Amino acid sequence: MPLQKLLFKPGVNREKTSYANEGRWYESDKVRFRQGLPEKIGGWQRISSTTFQGVCRSLWNWVTLGSVNLIGVGTHLKFYLEQGGGYNDITPIRETTAAGDVTFSATTAMQPYPSVTRAMVLGLMILLLLAGLYLLGAI
Length: 139
What we know:
By secondary structure, the protein is an alpha+beta fold. The chain contains 1 helix and 8 strands, in the order ββββββββα.
């Protein structure tokens, strides 16, 4: 029996059954079509061996002015910053804990203005970043 060339049309068609879809692709996984031919896509690659709490709901990648590649990972529990294979928890500090204890407080103590701590500034920066991501539709 001589060899016969098989001609398949590019693309995946799921609107018909696999039997009625003769000469076409019906199922695929990690495949793309270039110049009408199927090509394997490399799939996924783990970027870190560490884990984070919660289910990831949003990823935001950017490069700083100092050429540092960062990934923001938003879960339903916390917000992390991935840098160099590790996840740093940068979730803003809440006013009270789950037990109801106050985690920080500000006093005037004879100063005309309340003292501002580094943690407060960082928390405000994180909230502004999250608000910007929300407005961009990233989360």
